[in-house]
Design goal:
Blueprint: H1 3-36, H2 38-66, H3 73-92, H4 94-128, H5 131-148, H6 150-195
Length: about 200
């Protein structure tokens, strides 16, 4: 690897480092907020979700009339109307939405876990390994627990999301601070091996 290529690698890694570091710090802050004040944080998150749904619904409808929507304008209109409706409902009833949006999410996750459990069980029976039976049992148990009490599971959702945000944030910050130079050394090492 010549000096010009090495400079390009260094500048590329420093350009990527900033946004990655910012994302990691933002995830850590979000994790602390969710863990320190889960109810208030959930209310803010659900409110932002309502604003997002409302704006995406309006943009979807506008795209129909400006001609930038896909050929299936009917489906774009339905999605736009649903977004506007959901956004208005969430913004009009933020406290109710804070209770029911996580519960609906828990029901969706519960159904997803049940489906994953069935698929993993089929994978185990088709000869992909007995480990899939254990995964299937865990998925099915997780799905039944979530579907058995979605309101209770929804109340713990901010805490779980907070832990995940902290773990992801710390990992991303470490990647931004430590991972980039290691990647650069790996690239530099490959260049010297090729030359030899």
């Amino acid at each position: 690897m010549n000096a010009t290529q090495n400079t390009d690698v260094e500048s590329m890694s420093s350009e990527r480092r900033g946004p990655i570091l910012f994302q990691g710090i933002a995830a850590i802050i979000l994790g602390f907020l969710l863990l320190s004040a889960p109810e208030a944080s959930l209310t803010v998150l659900v409110t932002f979700l309502g604003i997002y749904w409302l704006l995406s619904g309006v943009v979807g409808i506008v795209k129909i009339f400006t001609g930038t929507a896909s050929r299936n304008w009917f489906w774009a209109a339905i999605v736009g109307a649903l977004g506007i409706f959901a956004g208005l409902v969430v913004l009009d009833h933020p406290l109710w939405s804070t209770l029911f949006v996580p519960a609906v999410l828990i029901v969706i996750l519960g159904i997803d876990a049940l489906l994953m459990g069935v698929v993993n069980f089929i994978r185990a029976l088709s000869g992909e390994g007995l480990g899939y039976i254990a995964i299937a049992i865990l998925d099915l148990a997780f799905g039944f627990i979530l579907l058995g009490s979605p309101l209770i599971a929804g109340t713990y959702l901010p805490v779980v999301l907070g832990f995940f945000a902290l773990i992801i944030g710390i990992s991303v910050v470490i990647l931004a601070l430590v991972g980039q130079p290691a990647q650069q050394e790996e690239i530099s090492g490959q260049g010297t091996r090729r030359a030899a």
